[in-house]
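queue> holo job accepted (D-gluconic acid)
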Amino acid sequence: MSSFPDGFLWGAATAGHQVEGNNVGADIWAMEHVEGAPFAELSGDACDSYHRYEEDIALLAESGLNSYRFSVEWSRIEPERGQFSRAELDHYRRMVAACYARGVTPVVTLNHFTVPAWFARDGAWSQPDAADLFERYTRRVVEHLDKVEWWVTFNEPNAGMLLVATGALPLGALGEDLPSGQQELFERFAQRVGGQPGTATMALPVIAPDALAHVFAAHRKARAAIKDIRPQARTGWSIAVHDFQAAEGGEACRDQVLAQAILPFWDLSRDDDFVGVQTYTREVYGPQGRIAHEPNGDTFQTGWEYYPAALGHTVRDAAAHTGVPVLVTEHGIATDDDEQRVRFTHAALQDLSTAIDDGAQILGYLHWTLLDNWEWHSGFAMTFGLIAVDRTTFERRPKPSLEWLGKVALDNGASLKLS
Ligand code: GCO
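queue> job finished
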């Protein structure tokens, strides 16, 4: 007997800028091309999924998975402020149709970090009408992709606050407070997007109080717009959450991270249809703050601790705090050892199944990620994918983990109990 409910979404996730290639109108593309920007490699052609999405969706479907989370790129859909591209909307409509043609349920993310360069030029999330601009874009997308039932408004709106709360980024690290090299970088960025230094800014990290307030408003407005156009659609946002643990005396530090970077975002989810959980590892806090993980043979390529139990813990916490069902919108491992990927995912899914047995409402599990892709500042070196991609020919080579996860999906997780 499987613990997983009927209709459970078993799938994989991607993000436009990480896989499509040549997302030339986006703020991150602009920053990649600024002299001195800290990117190990350019996104360039990425995985060329913009042209090869049919093959990607076919591989996903043939494995047995039944859901694909992908993002639509705002800068393609609205390349200039107020100018919408019917042709690009049609492109994403074809992607949705390709999913349904293969029995795959699309889960569509409206914002996966990138914004149009013009939006960055005008102040990104700090501009006063940021939420209205996002709502207008959302309406266009939802009207055009009229078959989509599952919407994620924002991917990890709390990513910036996580950096602040965990000490990776000082609060207020914007404008004048930046070290001099960074200041010049932002001036060059402003120039590149045709804006004024001090106004023009990348969308990330979202940490300034006005920008955060606008993102919260944008989520609310987008949710209302989606419901207005398609009342039966299900909406939520996906929150990055490590399994935050306290070693002896570390409770106050741990609780402060939760209060700053997680709970305000989960509070907003209470009015959503689901909360998206994205989890990979744990972080342990002592009285002085975060206790660094000692790398061992299982440590991820990213340096993160191998800790499969994080998934079960975080979904329970998210469900308890928000009172709404959980959709696991990302979970995975950066490794070149595919057997380790299976071992990790297997252990995490067993915990997910136990969480369901204990009463947590879980709607789906979307593995990060379908394809080895462009991992932001780290370039292509981090391999989170169920499918390898030849960096020259873009040839897709499914890994055994794809077949394994597809089999789990086909028996709706029943086999996880036996092993
Ligand atoms: C994020 C994203 C993904 C990442 C993934 C692995 O958290 O940055 O949503 O785009 O690629 O989490 O780091």
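queue> The pocket of D-gluconic acid is lined by residues 15, 18, 155-156, 240, 278, 330, 368, 375, 384 (CB under 6 Å).
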